[in-house]
Amino acid sequence: MAETTVPTNLREDGDQTPVQSPWRLFWKHFRRSQVAVWGGIILVVFYLAVLFAGFLSPYDYETQYRRHNNHPPTKVKIRDRDGNWHRPFVYATEMVDPMRTKYGEVEDDTRYPIKFFVRGADYKLLWLFPTNIHLLGVDEPGHLFVFGTDALGRDIYSRLLHGGRISLSVGLLGILLTYSLGLLVGGIAGYYGGVVDNILMRFSEVLMSIPGLYLILALRAAFPADIRSDLVYLIIIGILALVYWARLARIIRGMVLSLRENEYVTAAEALGVPSMMIIVRHILPNTMSFVIVAATISIPAYILGEVALSFLGAGIQEPIPSWGNMLQQAQKVSVLKQFPWILTPGVFIFLAVLAFNFLGDGLRDALDPKKVQGDS
């Protein structure tokens, strides 16, 4: 029976070591960066949370509790007023100072324990399965406002989860559209050169010369202000892709100019392979390590672009939540001093952007060819 051999490298001391696969080399370098690993973990948690937003949120994002507007985060207790220990519970609250919007616990000693897998507002799990089961909640008149409520009495935690669906998905879909366009245009310009290259690159330079935020606002102003939020969502993705594809196209064009001189490209041309197939199947795949890193680092720009548009009133409109329009109430310092919990979406925006940057730095180092060759 023939024996299976493991590929080896001969070291300077004469010992042979197994050759590591590209995936193992990548993981070896990536896990060295603890901040990158934690960045990836944070993003996985964020995307899973918004994916199951209906299940995780105790209330519907549109439900208004008019008697509890600008309510601070609910205090969860494990000891009652007599000092006895209990499972986590809350007391009912009421407004005690309408002038300053101050709340206090009612005199009633009734405890409202936090329950799991409770029935509440109807929603569709994963947009497919109708249900009304929520992860946690309390019985009325108790309320569980994890991050407090906004000026209309809507639960910020529930709106944060549903708003994250828009703000976080804009980054992924925007990158997908932008990089598809940038790769195609850059690949065509770099491969064909000449007049085609000049026309495409001059057009991209014109786009790059216009300040991004002003171009985004100008393009958004071209559409009616009262269109449906789902159309606004698609328009925002299209606008961001139109603004950001040019810079990538120029970088890809430079890489293709170098890659098209390789022997495998010459061989494909000699065999009569169509030009677009050469670009898509033989040249552009060799840019993927750069594209993966660049895309990861670029996603925060799309998230912040949506946040800026919604914050300025040109993006997602009420009552549909996004992290941007949730921050509109935080425009006044006096409001922030009195109700600091309305800045909660800003904290999650900061964490998401930071996590993407950490993850991008880790991917860049892990995919560095010099490091891979040194350890292979």
Explain the layout of strands and helices.
Blueprint (H helix, E strand, L loop, with lengths): L7 E3 L5 E3 L3 H9 L3 H18 L1 H4 L20 E3 L5 E6 L2 E5 L4 E4 L6 E2 L1 E11 L3 E9 L18 H37 L1 H16 L2 H10 L7 H31 L3 H8 L4 H9 L4 H24 L11 H4 L6 H6 L5 H23 L2 H7 L1
Antiparallel strand pairs: 1-2, 3-4, 4-7, 5-6, 8-9
Helix pairs in contact: 1-13, 2-4, 2-13, 4-5, 4-7, 4-9, 4-10, 5-7, 6-7, 8-9, 10-13
Organism: Eiseniibacteriota bacterium
Pfam families: BPD_transp_1, OppC_N
Protein name: ABC transporter permease
- Oligomeric state as shown: single chain
Low-confidence stretches: 1-6
Beta fraction = 5-15%
User: What percent of residues adopt helix (DSSP H or I)?
Assistant: 40-55%
By DSSP (H or I, 4+ residues per run), the number of helices equals 14
Distance between termini?
Answer: 30 Å
Summarize the biggest pleated sheet: 3 strands, antiparallel
Q: Give Rg in angstroms.
A: 27 Å
Q: How many separate structural domains?
A: 2
Strand order of the largest sheet: 3-4-7
Which series of helices and strands comes N to C?
Answer: EEHHHEEEEEEEHHHHHHHHHHH
The appropriate CATH architecture of the largest domain is: Orthogonal Bundle
Shape, principal axes of CA atoms: elongated
- What is the CATH topology classification name of the largest domain? MetI-like fold
Could you tell me the number of beta strands?
9
Helix/strand structural class: alpha+beta
